[in-house]
Structures are given as structure tokens and as C-alpha cells.
Amino acid sequence: MSFPLARRVAEVEPFLAMEVTERAIALEREGRSVIRLSVGEPDFPPPLEVVEACARALAAGETGYTDSRGLLELREAIVADHARRSGVRVDPERVLVTNGVSSAMLLVFALLVDEGDEVVLGTPHYPCYPNFVRVFGGRPVLVPTRAEDGFRLDPDAVRRAIGPRTRAIVVASPANPTGAVQDAATMRALASFGVPLVSDEIYDGLVYDGVRCSSALGLSDDAFVLDGFSKRYAMTGFRLGYAISPAPAARALQVLQQNLFICANRFVQHAGIAAFADGAKSLETMRAAYARRRTLLVEGLRRLGFGVPRMPDGAFYVFADARPFGAAAHDSHRFAFDLLERTGVAVTPGVDFGAAGEGFLRFSYAASEESLAEALKRLETALPRP
Ligand code: PLP
Predict the structure, then answer these.
(1) Residues near ligand 1 (Cβ within 6 A)
(2) Longest Cα separation, the chain
(3) Among 383, 317, 303, CA closest to 345
(4) Which end of the chain is more exposed for a tag (fewer CB within 10 A), N or C?
(5) Per-residue pLDDT tens for 216-229?
(6) Residue 143: strand, helix, or coil
(7) Selection from 66, 114, 12 nearest residue 261 by Cα
(8) Do 226 and 253 form a contact (C-beta atoms < 8 A)?
(9) 229 CA to centre of ligand 1 in angstroms
(10) 55-61: which pairs have CB atoms within 8 A and are 24 or more residues apart?
(11) What structural domains and CATH numbers belong to the chain?
């Protein structure tokens, strides 16, 4: 190449969940039988009403731009959905509809982070958070959590990580990759430190055993809520999400959206309206299936010798300690790719979720019970005795 790339490119690390999955797809193309437990994508179809609403919108010519903030009808439906889930009703002017939570995150970090600023987050963490921060010249400050504590955050440790350059605290509850849910007291504490709280609530509601989620909405005047349709409504490829921002930040976020994306896809926004209207039954069907699979997978992994000291509360992942399998497992990148080549089971290396995840593997149970049982069988033949 005869031209230099921007410095930030070197600072953004590959998203290993995608890399493993891309290798899995290549193996499938060669005719191998692969079980994909590597990517955070529901194996269920979106609700039929969502697909029909999207197709109807396309056929009716709903193909142009919308208001940069999104269709008012969708923003009002988002407000109503959050009022139902969290008990807090916000003005639709605070809602910005985006192309997935990923875009909402980009806009919020663009809003908050200058060169040299810091963002505090718990680790193991969703791999993209630090990369979003680094893209804007910021520095992620990681607060460790432990498997033995169910990967729950210690609010005191978060407080100690805050310094004069801290511009945000990021929390995801339920979390990817750990499934940890932060309780109401923790969420209240995180919102009380005088720093904007960015709360990624994309897995809200995907919880089991009566665990309850707590939204950051209404906890502080400075909370941002990021949420979307990918997980609860199995709409990953629609690319639809949103940010709910503090009222004084809404205009700046809108201006960023106007410039960087213009708006979210119009016909997809109609699909979002249908998801709220008709998606509740599908969501409950998925949740009940995930609850059964979680038990099957956790019990199976424990039987094989993986360390899973606590049941994950939510989302659809098990973050399992592979170190009982010996030195090879301490390099989770090599271990995961080697397992894929030998067994056709695709899982994500723990190191994707930060150095604190090294030695772990993330298993997604957004796969059928038959696939999970087959994956466990294949792993049993390939793994050394712990
Ligand atoms: N936030 C978390 C915690 C995720 O796990 C994911 C996807 O896996 C995203 C955000 C991205 O969501 P979207 O598909 O809405 O961009």
C-alpha cells in the first residue's frame, strides 16, 4: 500500500466472535458439519408480523429517508415499551432511532469522548466497547469481575476507577459474554457517581429463574439507554436500535445522526413498530426455550469439566472456564480455533472479551437443544480429561 492508514485502525482489534464464525462458514462451504455457538444471534426467525410489516412497507413505497430521529410513531412505541418495562415514561424527543445498537453506541461515544478521555467498564466485556472508545482517542478503564461472583460489578471498584478524565461508565445488564444481571442497588450506585451512565439494555427481559432487570432510565438525569431489536425480536439483520438520551443531549445526538447516518432504514422502522405490537408471544417462546437450553448447556459443560461456578442470569451465553483442560486452554484464541478444526464446534475465545476472559470460552445457546447436545458429544471426544 502506498498510503498510510489512520492511526486508529491499528488500535481497533478484530472481533473474534465474527472471525471464528467466518472460519465456521468457510468450513461449511467445504462440506464440513459445523455447530455454530460462536455468534450472539437468535436461531429463531423474527415474528411473522414483523416480516409482513416490513414487506408491506416496502411494497407501499416506504423507501425514503425519515426524520433523522426516526418515525414519530416508532419513537412513541419505544417510549410506551420502556414505560411498560421500567415504569419510566420519557418524551419521544429524547429517542433517536439508529441502525442497530452498534450505531447508537458510535453516536453516544462520539458525543462524550474526546482525545485522552476515559470510559470505565466492567470486564470481561462486549468486545466492541473499548474499540468504540479508542476510535475517538479515548482510553477504556477496565474494572475486573469474577466468575465466582457471577461476574457482578462491585460499585466501589467502579467508583475507584473514576478519575478527572472519566466521561462515562458503561454497563450492560444482562451482559455479554457473562449473562450477569446487575441488581437495582448496583444500577442506582452506578448512576450516582456524577458521570454519565451508558446502559446497554439490548438483552433486557432475556432473564431466567425470576431474575429481574433494572433499567438505567430514570435513575439519573445523565443516563443514556441503548437498546434495540436484534436480540428480543430476533431481528439482527434488520439493523434497528435506538438511544434514549438526557434531554439536553438529544439535539447534539440528532446532529451527529444527520451527518453520519441521516436516518435508520424507513421500511425497517415499520418492522420495529410491528415488533412492539405483535412480538410479545415470540419473545416469550424464545425466552422459555433459552431457559431450557441454559440448563442443558451449563450442566453439560460442568460434566465435561468446564468451570461454571454460577448459573448465568440472562442473555444467551455461558462464559465457561476452560483452564481445567490444561496449558493449551490458557491460549483461548488457539484453543477455540483448534476445537473448531477438530470437532466442527464453533465457540468464541474468551480473550475476545478482554484479558480478563483469557482461558475462558463463550458458548451461545441460541441454538437448538439437538445442536447443543451434539456439540457437547463432540467436545467430549476431543477434550483432554480435566
Ligand atoms: N451490545 C451488546 C452487549 C451486544 O451483545 C451486541 C451484539 O451482540 C450489540 C450491542 C450489537 O447490537 P446490534 O445488533 O443492535 O448492533
Answers:
(1) 40, 100-102, 126, 172, 176, 200, 202, 228, 230, 236, 241
(2) 60
(3) 383
(4) N
(5) 998 999 999 999 99
(6) strand
(7) 66
(8) no
(9) 10
(10) 56/270, 57/266, 57/267, 57/270, 57/271, 58/267
(11) 7-45+281-382 (3.90.1150.10), 48-279 (3.40.640.10)
Provide DSSP, 62-116: --S---TT--HHHHHHHHHHHHHHHS----GGGEEEESHHHHHHHHHHHHH--TT
d(C-alpha 142, C-alpha 244), whole Å: 24
Q: Which atom of ligand 1 is nearest to the CA of 41?
A: 8
Task: Report yes or no: 333 and 324 within 8 Å, Cβ to Cβ.
Answer: no
Quote the CA–CA distance of 112 and 224 in Å, as a whole number. 11
Beta bridge partners, 260, equal none
pLDDT computed for residue 384 by the predictor: 81
For ligand 1, atom 8: residue with the closest CA: 40
Cell numbers describing residue 385 = 480429561
Q: pLDDT for 68-96, tens place per residue?
A: 999 999 999 999 999 999 999 999 999 99
Distance 103 CA to ligand 1 centre (A): 10
- List all residues 6 or more positions away from 94 whose beta carbon is below 8 Å from its beta carbon: 244, 245, 246, 247, 250
- For the CA of 241, the nearest atom of ligand 1: 15
pLDDT value at 385 more than 80:
no
Backbone angles phi, psi at 145, to 5 degrees: -125, 160
Strands 345-346 and 35-36: parallel
What is the per-residue pLDDT across 321-346, written as a single tens digit (0 to 9) for each? 999 999 889 999 999 999 999 999 99
Residues 187-210 pLDDT 10s: 999 999 999 999 999 999 999 998
Rounded-to-integer distance, Cα 195 and Cα 132, Å? 18
Helix-helix angle 266-278:48-59, to 10 degrees? 150
pTM for the model stands at 0.96
Instruction: Fill in the amino acid letter for 314.
Output: G
SS3 content of the chain, % helix, strand, coil (to 5): 45, 15, 40
